Amino acid sequence: MKNTTHEIRQSFLNFFKTKGHIIIPSSSLIPKDDTTLLFTNAGMNQFKDFFLGQKNSTYSKIATVQRCLRTGGKHNDLDNVGYTEKHHTFFEMLGNFSFNDYFKLEAIQYAWELLTSQKWFNIPKNKLWISVYKDDNETYEIWKNIIKVPIEHIIKIGDKNNCQYNSENFWQMSDNGPCGPCTEIFYDYGNGSIDNITDFIENKTQRFLEIWNIVFIEFNRISKTNIIPLPNKSIDTGMGLERISSVLQNVRSNYNIDIFDTLIKKISKFSNLTNSNHISLKIIADHIRSSTYIIADGIKPSNEHRGYVLRRIIRRALRHGRKIGIKKIFFYKLAQDVAQVMGTSANFFKDKIYEIEKILKIEEIQFSKTLDVGLKILNKKLKHINNNILSGKIAFYLYDTFGFPVDLTEDICREKKIQIDYVNYKLFQQQQRSKSKSNTFYKNYNDDIIVNDICIFQGYKKNKITAKVKHIFVNKKPVLEICKNEHGIIFLDRTTFYSESGGQIGDTGQLYYKTAYFEVENTKKYGNTIGHIGKMNSGIIKLHDCVYSEINQERRTSIQNNHSATHLLHATLRKTLGNVVEQKGSLVTDTHLRFDFSFSGSITLPQIHEIEKIINNKIFNNIAIKTKEINLEDAKQQNAIALFHNQYRSVVRTVFIEDFSIELCKGTHATRTGNIGIFKIVSHRSVASGIKRIEAITGKMAIKHWHKQENQIQNISSILHTHPVDITEKIQKLIVQQKHLTCKLDKLKNKDNINQINKIIRCSYEIKGVKILIHKFYNHNYKELKEIVQQLQKKIEYAVIILINIVNNHFTMISGITKNLVNSITAKSIIDIVIQETHGNGGGKNDLAAVGTTDIKKLDIILKKITLWINRKLKNN
Ligand code: SER
After folding, report:
1. How many angstroms separate the CA atoms of 792 and 111, rounded?
2. Binding residues for Zn(2+), per the UniProt record (predicted)?
């Protein structure tokens, strides 16, 4: 009879029940209280503490069917999946365990009975081979003498690299933890003896399939070099359910057992693939099982830790989906099939299947865009590869620009026997890290969102249409719906919203449907599609909903008027200043327009007025503004203004304002020049060498501008007590008056200074023919004191001048030395005395120096010190 996998699972448990074992459910894929493991990788994980003797098990004999994941650490089969017939990321492990109960003999007898007994799995004895650890004679003897396995079928396996316990027949859970020698049972797909033991060890022809591992847990590895014996001896066995199924179902590959057969058939339907043996089908089938189970155990795709492993698995599966021609979202639909084929093992998540699908679907939608873009570029690059090495730069570019993961690039390259230049990849990664650290503006709203879709812009003629919601992003992640108060980006199949481009800002407005209302705050381009950025003010908008797309028409009208005015300005500048004028930048908003252009000369006010006059005349003539799609060549012949170094399509949208302005443009425009109302330049200046900038306003904004100016003039004239028409005359009069007063004030000041100078001289004393002038001022002006010092320097032949200005608790000291004295005494050294005493700030030259400090209390002591010092200096001369 051909056993189903479900029956085999059940038989295993029944067998061990008959041997007095208690059946315990599988533990989660997320190990509990164990930081040494990312995921549960063996049946024994949940019993780790029992093995270590740290806890006592209620039962000494247990059997389980444990869900396991081998995607990292000591046991990693991720890269083997699809390439061998027996590896999986996720699999179920059948295991029996003894804690300080039976040991080697019974463990081996149970395994042999289950495998070979007619009542149970009934595998012919001669199809089984055994491996034992080289030093484990006890086990060897059991197989040989008690089980009676012929010695040709018992192979002793040694250590690798002469390193003790580094052997296929010494099992360890992880880098630390329970471990011990093991004996393994193999199924032989071939016949007869082997020529050499290496035929068995290397197993190049895949003749031998390892089906059961019986571990004699006797040790605890506490470090790389240290293994200690455990107080109790225990048994840990593990048999891969998929492998034993393949033997019992008489198929050579795990991927042909009933479970995978059903899954693979389902996947093939999405792909039109006729070859059900295709590697990609196996990979997808394996990965949907692991993804479903990982999510069922509570993990979500993310960029770190377990979430990242899950993300890698999903992404790899999606890539293989593309490889076999699946273009639509498909992966999430398989979760339901996994739940069905896995039978009782899936019972724990059957009621969560909708959530699992939702998580998978979001990840799939998000990554599909990245995948399509990345694959297209990578495949193109791989066509021109040298020496089978993909440059690190390309691998990094794919990751950095498109979010295409490097492990996926590696996966694709591996299939083509191409390697990635990781040295350079890391270099680019480092450069980018330091760049983004120093440039916080690097990330903008468009970052991280790649939407490979199109949106038809219907906003040239309409301001409101109905459209279908194609994608929704919240927090840069694709979601199925956006709810009240959430900020996000909505993508439609068509829209009336103009997206920020060619200088014209994005539209605002609303997307709504019944009570759902999304306020669009800005509109931007994302590849070939258009993102409506904003906030959900009420209700919910879901994917595929049909919504009204309605722009803020009043704002758009102002933007359009300014855009058409920009075209008039551009044409006028070329006519008045010459064809050297070339557009270098432009901004068109609802409030104003800004136009940067090449022009080296200066622009005079009469020229500005002339430009305004020409433009306003065109506005007054109320000319129709027409747009046409014409051939690029025709546009060139008509001297259409365009940035011809840009790449245009062969048919171009061209905006005509009669033949006065013909310009290639995708922006939105007024229907007639009269709509602009009025045009006013508000500023013109140079912004870079040879680049001028004009800022202008139109219509209502121009009126506002004039009102503001009028108010200002009104204010000025009321301050000046005059009529607005007399302002200029009045200001001129005031300027003359002010000049007159300044002159008078200077004269008075001079007179005052002379008085001061005389007073200082009168209070001075002399040492060896040198006049010492020390004088204190209160609340004086520093500049004036400096002038006094300078005048004294001119007036007296030999003098040391020290003027102090005291303001509250602060004083400033200015010291001047006459020219003839600077060789024997300097102003700077006098000031240095103050600095030393007070830590004040100051400095200067030999003939003039100054210092300021708040240490007013020390002033008299300092002055004493200075005079003593001057006396000494001059007397010693
Ligand atoms: N722990 C051993 C293994 O995983 C036996 O179950 O192979």
Report:
1. 115
2. 563, 567, 665, 669
